């Protein structure tokens, strides 16, 4: 695990966008899993700037959704599908049909998860997993406790996630209670993992993710065991000296 500490959120976002662009230069057909959340928004804007300067192309990029609320139509303003479309796909000229969805608009969540798994397998796994860090240590919606074998599945959101997602939508009552999540197995097997962490509110959980004993109670702590993990944090999230 490598830890890069950037001065602030903007610098973290530039660093992250450069790292993603490097993957796409090397492998234009890379399969990449794309998170929502506030943390990567500026990274995506920086990435679009690099794209517009011609640093990489997106014609072959294979995007995968990371997680999705269960039971929302795709055109609901809270749908993660819509969020990925607005912030990543459209600005990078990627046709929305190319996104491998985790389809939360279904009465058969199990079948939706197996269809997603089949697509990940067909792609040969992820070349790059871009991830944010939940304030409770979740990766995607692999809520605590989640072990490294956790499959793609339907999950009940924890109180912590309902509270933090409530900030996106104007209240806890607006947060769906169930979601589909890409499993830990796929994420941990990605050839490269980029964990983006920003802000003082993430200090304590980032410390646990990097330095505390590995435990299902902090699913992100399993990243300590994965060889190709780069954590890009800002100083607000990691104010101490870099430990190694
Ligand atoms: P955030 O969410 O980027 O909005 O902090 C991260 C997450 O919950 O995974």
From TrEMBL:
GO terms for molecular function: glucosamine-6-phosphate deaminase activity; identical protein binding. GO terms for cellular component: cytoplasm. Keywords: Carbohydrate metabolism, Hydrolase. Residues 11-226 form the Glucosamine/galactosamine-6-phosphate isomerase domain. Pfam families: Glucosamine_iso. InterPro entries: Glc/Gal-6P_isomerase, Glucosamine6P_isomerase, NagB/RpiA_transferase-like. One of its GO terms (biological process) is N-acetylglucosamine catabolic process. The keyword Hydrolase applies. PANTHER family: GLUCOSAMINE-6-PHOSPHATE ISOMERASE. This is Glucosamine-6-phosphate deaminase. It comes from Ktedonosporobacter rubrisoli.
